[in-house]
């Protein structure tokens, strides 16, 4: 499942990041890496921005970044 399929408050483990090298490097630099725990905190009404907690750090993601993250609950 993708991060964008999660409901607010759901927690999961990051399984894979399917993105080009630039986006992947940006996500990894924010702590979004395979094996880390991620929790969906909120998203905008039109689901353009996603707020997550990754290992205790809050991160805001754009829709295309959130869609690149595959998770497993």
Automatic annotation (TrEMBL):
Signal peptide as annotated in the record: none
User: What is the protein's species of origin?
Assistant: Nitratiruptor tergarcus DSM 16512
Keywords tagged on the record: Iron
Q: Which InterPro entries match?
A: Fe-transptr_FeoA-like, FeoA, FeoA_core_dom, Transcriptional_repressor_C
Q: What is the lineage of its organism?
A: Bacteria, Pseudomonadati, Campylobacterota, Epsilonproteobacteria, Nautiliales
**Domain (Ferrous iron transporter FeoA-like) ranges:** 1-73
> What terms describe the molecular function in GO for this protein?
transition metal ion binding
Pfam name, any one: FeoA
Which protein is depicted? Answer: Ferrous iron transport protein A
């Amino acid at each position: 499942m993708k991060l964008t399929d999660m409901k607010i408050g759901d927690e999961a483990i990051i399984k894979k990041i399917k993105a080009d090298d630039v986006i992947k490097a940006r996500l990894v630099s924010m702590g979004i890496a395979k094996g880390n725990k991620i929790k969906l905190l909120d998203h905008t009404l039109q689901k353009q921005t996603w707020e997550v907690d990754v290992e205790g750090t809050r991160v805001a993601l754009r829709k295309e970044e959130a869609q690149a993250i595959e998770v497993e609950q």
